[in-house]
Every structure is written in C-alpha cells, then in structure tokens.
Amino acid sequence: MKKKVVMYMPYRGDPVKGELISADLTPVELQQIAGVALQRGWSVELIDAMVEDRPVERVLAACEDADVFCSSCILGYQVFDGVEMSNSVRERFASLPIWWGGWFPSAVPELFLTGASADAVCIGQGELTFGEMLDALEAGEPLDGINGLALLRDDHVVLTPKRKIMGFEAYPRAPFHGILDLQDYYAEQQRQCEIERSPNGRGIRHRFPDPPGRSAYPAVSYFSSFGCPEPCTFCNSPGLTGRAYKMQPVDDMLDHIQEIHARDPFVGLRFQDANFGVSKKRTKAFAQGLIERGLDVVWHTTIEVKSINSYDDETMDALRDSGLFIVTIGVESADWETQKSIGKRIRPGEAIKAISRMDERGIVAGASYIIGYPGETEDSMRATLAEARYVKNNFKVASVDIFPYRPIPGAALWQSALDSGYQPPQTALEWGRVFEYKADSWKGAIPERVARDWNVFSFLAPWADGHVRCSPLTRKVLGAAARWRMKTGFFSMPVEYKVYHYARQVLDRMGVPRVEAAGLLGE
Q: What percent of the chain has pLDDT over 90?
C-alpha cells in the first residue's frame, strides 16, 4: 500500500469577513514539494481552502489513513488558519507526524514547533529536504541527520546544518494535474467575477484595470525561480537564502506551461516568483517563446526597477507583444537616503523612468511603496507620498500602493524595529491575527499627520482610477473629487473619506460580509 501525505493550503483571507482572494493563486508552494513525493511513489492529497467548502472535515477525513500531514504559509491570515488546522489534526491524531514549511515558519520555527503542533519545520528551499524527510519516515529513521530542518529536542530548538540552494534540475516539476483540478479554480474565479459583477474580477485583482478587450480569467499561477539576489533590509529573504537565485530554464518553463495550457486552457498566467526578471536574456526568450508557440495569454509578474531600465526597446516590445500586462515593481521609497538604508538603491528618477517605459506600451506598472521604516524622516515619507501622487497623475494605467513598514523576523531591520518600540506577537496564532498591511500593521514610526494623508491617499486611489464598482453618479462625483485631491495634494478635510468609513463601520457592526458591503458602499 502506498504511503500517503496530506497537504493543506490555508485560507489566504478570512472567510468570516467574506474576503475574496483571487483564485488564480493556485497552491504552487505545495505543488513544488508534491512532485518530490509523487516521484517516490507516495500518494498525495492536496487540500486547498481556496476551493474547498469544508476544509476541516476534508483534512481530518484525509488524515485517517495518512502517514504525515504538511502545511505551508506566508505572513497573514494563512498563519492563523494553518495553525488552527494543524492543532486540530494533532488533537485528532496524536501520533501523526506534522511538518511545516514556507518562508514565515522558516523565520520563526520555534513558534511552529511550540504552538502549531509541528514535529519539524523545513527551513528555506524545501524540495530536497522534504524528499529526504519522506525517505526517513518510510525507513523509520529520525530526522536529525537531514540538513535544513528545525527540530524540538528536550524542549530546545535544534537547527540542523543549512542546505545548499539547488537549481530546478535537482527536483521534478510541480504537478498541475492529478493532485488538483484546475477546473475547480476556474469555477471559483467565475464565481468571484459574478460577485464582483466584472468579467475580470478587477476588484479581486487589487483593482488593476482589465486587459484591453478581454478577461484575464481563467488563470493559473506558476513558479519559475527561487530566491532573490537583492539585499533589501526590510525583507528576510537575504537571511534565509543568502541572496541565492535559481531560475528554471526557459525552454523547460515554456514546455511545462504549454502542457498545462493544452490540458486546461487558460488566459491569465500569474507568476509567484519573488523576482522574475533578473536575467534579461531569459526574460526576452520567454516572451519570444510565448509568441512563437502561439500561446495567447496575458501574464503578470514581478520585475525590479533596475531590470526594467536595463532592458533594450526590443525586449520591452517583446514583453508587450507576448501579453505581459501587469508588472509589480517594488519601489519602496522616493527618498535617496532611505533607499540606501533599505538596500534598494533606486536613484531619483529611476522608478519614474521604468514606469514610463511600461506605461507607454500599455503594461500596467503596479508600483508599491513603503513608509515608516525605523528612523525614516517625515520628509522622506512626504517625498514618497508626492512621488506616488505624481505616478497617479501622469501615467495612464499605472497602479500605486503605499504600505506601512511591517517588521518581519529575520530581516536586517528587525532589530531596529524592536529598538524603536515595536512589540511583536509572541505566538504563531498572534502573528496570524496581523492580517492586513493597512489595517493591522505597526504605525509607531509614522507621524499622525503623515498617517492621515496616507490613509486618504489609499482611499482615493481606486476612485481616481475609476476602478470602483458603484453607480454612475457616485463614480462621477467621488471620482472627480479624488482626482482633484490627487492633483492638488490637498488631503485635509476629507469629508467623503469620513462618510465612507462611518458607513463601513456601521455595516461591520451589522455583520454585513465585506463582499456585500462593497456593493453597498461602491467599492
């Protein structure tokens, strides 16, 4: 009889609040390690809360004949839901091994070993480590001799030696069929679009505009690189990976994507890479490969500002012609001194140049900024707000988000945040309650007057873009007011903002789900 592993992908958003998280986010984190299990002849049952009506019942039933339970998460609601599920499994099946992985458990393994019923936490890249763990479990051997693990021994966390980062040739491709049904995700995408009354579900897709004349659904996610070579001090990736970066060969990537498309045709292709565009050669070859193979898709990825500016016009045109529609770029600050302190070193004008190169080709630049770094000056934060306004006022399709700095364990700035008064959650469950950057992040480093203008900016941005679902009259009135405020920078006396939030508080107290409230409030 085959050995069996049960894998659980937690909810990405709180279902009680009715939050819709775009269902093009397939569980690539678990698919990556599922291929290793299948290669060894194990049976894999992957349960994704995104498309499962009763995940607790399904997981507990699956664990009846399982040999191990696994889960993974990033910081946010996934932590809360995953820990709750893990503890439920432990309560029902006291002797069933429970293993955790993912970048957040990698950063704080002690919290998962002591508060999430974990017997082991895989640190960093997990494919080879997971395979060796399965081999040890099948042979009845301890895990202590396996590199890349955190284990609890005599109430102490023990870290085994670090594992070397390996390339994609060292492990099998992530399976997209057999362990999951993409049609389930396509059906959920359709359901979300119907709720949003948008053919593209743009309210779910973070209010990005629709691709010209078409929908981005049905859609899948893909993972084509590991790690990131950037030294950003607000991120814990440099500490976990040593800035190592491994890319899937372009022909193998194209072959795999074409195979998936042939079996379950899709329109949208969303890369979950941390930094897709490091290699101009691979990026250009991928775009040209999509064109040559006749893969008519729209795709969404993450590319650094400096990379965009290093591409020649031929490469940029190939990206446009291949269907590249959204590029997420982490600008992070408009102030040069702050740029140096966070390790990005994007010089003044570079972000605007990159956004301009994309905007003139109809490629949406999804620019993200951060304010409130430890020690950041008010002038620096104001400069970031001003540049974000400039982007909104001067580019046709660019999108802008400004987030408050979130202290992350393992990042170089972590200790600075603690020294500045940040009091972190003490358990995995408490971390899981830090749900949203804008709602629950640490605001201690942001002066009250800056926080006021930032809050108003964040409220106005989608109205100024015209991406809000509401009546024509409401869109006309609030859209005009938002565009005026964006142009003038006058964020004082935001009457429309206060009325909106008062209405939202009333609906929250009435228990109206966020999705229904969005329709009532015109989000």
A: 72
Whole-angstrom distance, CA of residue 345 vs CA of residue 162: 29
CA atoms in the 13 A half-sphere facing the CB of 514: 11
Q: Which of 182, 354, 199 is nearest to 270 (CA)?
A: 182
The tokens of 156 are what? 């102490």
Q: What is the pLDDT of residue 485?
A: 85
79 token code pair = 């932590």
The string of pLDDT tens digits covering residues 97-137 is 999 999 999 999 999 999 989 999 999 999 999 999 999 99
**Is the bond preceding residue 175 a cis peptide, omega within 30 degrees?**
no
β pairing state of 43-48 and 399-404: unpaired
The DSSP element (H or E) to which 326 belongs, if any, is: strand 324-332
State whether residue 271 is helix, strand or coil. strand
The answer for 207, left when phi > 0, alpha when psi is -120 to 50, beta otherwise, is left
Distance CA 24, CA 127 (A): 23
φ/ψ of residue 271, rounded to 5: -80, 135
Residue type, 298: V
* CA distance linking residue 218 with residue 269, whole number of Å: 9
Please write down the long-range contacts of 342-349, taking CB distance under 8 Å and 24 or more positions apart: 342/232, 342/233, 342/234, 342/373, 342/413, 343/230, 343/231, 343/232, 343/233, 343/412, 344/230, 344/232, 346/305, 346/306
| Total-model pTM | 0.91
190 by Cβ neighbours in 10 Å (0-12 / 13-18 / 19+) ranks as middle
Name residue 146's amino acid: I
Residue 13: closest CA among 22, 3, 5: 22
pLDDT for 511: 64
Whether 127 contacts 171, CB under 8 Å: yes
Q: Where are the alpha helices (DSSP H) in 312-359?
A: 313-321, 336-342, 350-359
The b-or-e profile of 249-276 (16+ CB within 10 A means b, else e) is ebeebbebbeebbeebebbbbbbbbbbb
- Over residues 308-315, the mean pLDDT reads 98
Measure Cα distances from 17 to 13, 24, 77, 178 in Å: 8, 20, 12, 32
Give 476's contacts (C-beta < 8 A, 6+ positions apart): none
pLDDT beyond 60 at 200: no
Check residue 111 and give its pLDDT.
96
Rounded Cα distance, 28 and 46, in Å: 11
Separation between Cα atoms, residue 268 and residue 506, nearest integer Å: 37
430, β-bridge pairs: none
Q: Tokens 């009889």: give the residue.
A: 1
Q: Which two tokens stand for residue 273?
A: 């890479």
C-alpha Rg value of the chain to the nearest Å = 23
Structure tokens at 395: 């580019």
Q: If residue 462 lies in a helix (H) or strand (E), which one and from where to where?
A: helix 448-465
Q: Are strands 245-247 and 225-227 parallel, antiparallel or unpaired?
A: antiparallel
Query: Angle 448-465/378-394 helices, nearest 10 degrees?
Result: 10
